[in-house]
Amino acid sequence: MKIDTYGDPKNPVALLIHGIFYPGVTSYRSILPILEKKYYIIVPNLDGLSYPKTDFVSARKQGERIVEWLKENNINHIHFLLGSSFGSSVAFEILKDVSLNIDKAALDSPALKESKLHGMILYFEMKKTAKDFRKNGINAFKHFDKYRYFDNFDKEYCLKVYNTMDDKTLKELAFSCYKYRLPSELYRDDTKIKFIFGEKDKSKANLPEVKELKSGEIKIVEGMSHLQYMFEKPTEFLHECGVL
After folding, report:
1. Separation of alpha carbons 11 and 202, rounded Å
2. What's the rounded Cα separation, in Å, for the pair 236 and 154?
3. What's the pTM value of the predicted model, to 2 decimals?
4. pLDDT bracket for residue 184 (50, 70, 90)
5. Which of 27, 90, 194, 212 could form a disulfide with 18 if both were Cys (CB 3.0 to 4.6 A apart)?
6. Residue 49 has what DSSP assignment?
7. pLDDT in tens, 42-61
């Protein structure tokens, strides 16, 4: 697993875990310049969602690989953990590791549900996206409103990621987003956790599971769709997460 880092290693650690449609640091262009002033930022490139191509593994194994890297680099204290979309399930695996001290965690548009139907819907959406990218290249981005935040550099990287994905990886990724079973309880009394949903976000399908968990504050942001709050109002988003 390739790990990107930004900022001064002497600063408190912010660990940011991306989702499917915004691979690597492309998820965090809006908040990176703000966080970099006071944090040492770690952005893992999730296996199956990176370039050069890597094979996809489960959220649990992704989490294990990230924790292994942290321990190899003598990092056991995370001031801020952010999981976005699919990255929220990886972040949740990291929250289970009580050997790590984690002050604050935010799960934005979390993918924490078990549903074959939702997995199938996402699979067909991802197939359509990948097909359009292969056929139309950079011009395909104008067909997807969710990529309006990308500059040309991030578009090129996203194309590389998607153009190297085979159907097996697409299917594994899609179904893994809706193949996550939350535990009955999270033993993290020392961690302040917030679940963030856009009012118009499809990830609100996860609300029943999150409410049942009773392990953090739930914030529903009026008028926002999937990850829109972070991209369009980064300073306000980080204030909501409690890190500014």
Report:
1. 35
2. 23
3. 0.96
4. confident
5. 27
6. S
7. 999 999 999 998 899 999 99
